[in-house]
Structures are given as structure tokens and as C-alpha cells.
Amino acid sequence: MKVGLDVGGTKTDAVAVDASGTIVGRVRLATGWGADAVIGTVLTAVRALGAEPGVADDVIRSVGIGIPGQIEPGTGRVVHAVNLGVDELDLVAATAPTLGVPVGVENDVKAAALGAFALHGGSGSMAYLNLGTGVAAGIVSEGSLWRGARGTAGEVGHISIDPNGPLCRCGQRGCIEALAGGGAIAERWARSGALPVRDVFDAADAGDTRARELRAGLARGVAAAVRVLVLTADVDAVVFGGGITALGDRLMSDVRAELAASAEASPFMRSLHLEERVELLPAGSPAAALGAALIGAARDAEGALTHG
């Protein structure tokens, strides 16, 4: 049995997956702040899963962890996980001795891409587009994650599509993330509320001019990300996940309308059938945790080969 954890800024989602790929246990708990608290969260989550019916500590063979921030290639070191209060942390060294099983670590969006690919059927090629506070993607082909030469494959959020557009936190103007990232939209909306992007959609429906501009910019940014992913990687499907996708059909109808508008003006774009290649990850899907479990299992397999 393999365990996967999606360590987020506020909560950690953990799943236990059996040999057939079925999720047989799932727990959620608050994520601690700072390196020591993150380590404690991981260990607590694994212990909690081991206490679930049908799961036991002695049958857990591997643990995979999806976490925000940059993962140094070939290591378990996490750097710049600012949403967790972690500047630098070797998560494998900090947890594997206690857990007593192989531990794998991956960026949370890339882990979610692997999980979404498995949930999507596990064949062909797919891009997972995460629409949350920021915008980023993971690309999977036949079960393999494409990281690129330096691990930046899929960082579509920082492609500028409007040099005169809003300033992005990366320093450029008009980036996809500056238009479609939840954090950027909330900052530009500048009104208090628990769910600023939803408030923008509601205000746009009520006729607010500023809200309509922000909502149109979101659709424009997401549609641009879809075009980039298809035109560069020619994936079979682009699957949307992340907090903004809670808007469901309200989001999808806007994005499809934007894609249809570009197709209307270009026979080439029409030939790509982009509207048919986008879909939402089902609400509540534990994609990142499932993907993390697959990453941890890969480490277990590597260990088995290394040690005979």
C-alpha cells in the first residue's frame, strides 16, 4: 500500500492507495506553519492514515509528498515554499528515518498532474492546468511527467500575453497569472470578501463594469494558457483544477467562449478543436495526493532495483 500527501498552505490531504490503484483511506488535517510544523504534519498524516479501517502501518510501503515550492532535481529538498513558511527543507531526510519507508517529494502541481492523468484514464497525453492563487501546469505523456531541462516545463503562468497589461509579481506585465491568478484578481478587485473571484463573477453578473473587465481577463488568460499548452505539447486534453474551478460551468462557459472567438477568426485554430479538449477535474478529486502516492511508489521501485 502506498501513501500520498498533498501538503497545502492551509490543509493537508492524505490518501492510502492499494495495489489495484484504489483509494482505501483518506484523511485531512490542518498544515502547520514553518519547517518543523510541516514535518510534524507529514508524520501525523501518515499515522492517521495507518489508523484508518483497512489501512495499517505495517502495510505502507512508500510515502509520496506533493508540496508547493521548488524541488531540487534528484533530491527531497524543498526551497521557497513561501506559503508554508519554508525557505529550505530536506523533507526526505527529515521524514524517511521516522517513517521507515522510501519517501518521494514533488512540486504539488506536478504531483496533481500525475494524479489527474491517472483519474483521466491513464493513457495518451494530458496537461493539468492549476487555477488557484497562481497559474501553473504539469504535462504528462503516457504516465511520464515532463519536467524540462531545469524543471520549469509548464510554468505557463509567466508567459506575457499583453505587454501593456497588469504588473505580475514576476516583474513582467500582462502575464497569464496576472490576468487569471486568484491572487492577482483579488488584489485588483481590492474589496474584502472570503471568495474574491466568486464575488467578481457575481458583481459582473450584476453589471459592475470593473468586475466584467476582471472576469473577461480571467477567461482570456485561461484560454491563452490552453492555446500555449496545445500548441507547444499538443496534448490530448487540458484538465483544469485548483480553487478557481469551484466556479464550475460559470468558468468553463467563459473560457469556451474565448476559445470559440479565436477559432472563429482562424481556420487553423478551428482545426485544433480546443473547446472539446478542455475539461474540469471533478470537484473533490484528490489528484495531488494520488499523484504524490505514485511518486512515492516510484521511489519504492527504485529502491527495490538498487537493493536487489
Automatic annotation (TrEMBL):
PANTHER family linked to this entry: N-ACETYLMANNOSAMINE KINASE, ROK (REPRESSOR, ORF, KINASE) FAMILY
Tree of life domain: Bacteria
SUPFAM superfamilies on file: Actin-like ATPase domain
Matches recorded under InterPro entries: ATPase_NBD, ROK
Family statement: Belongs to the ROK (NagC/XylR) family.
Protein name as catalogued: ROK family protein
Pfam family membership, one: ROK
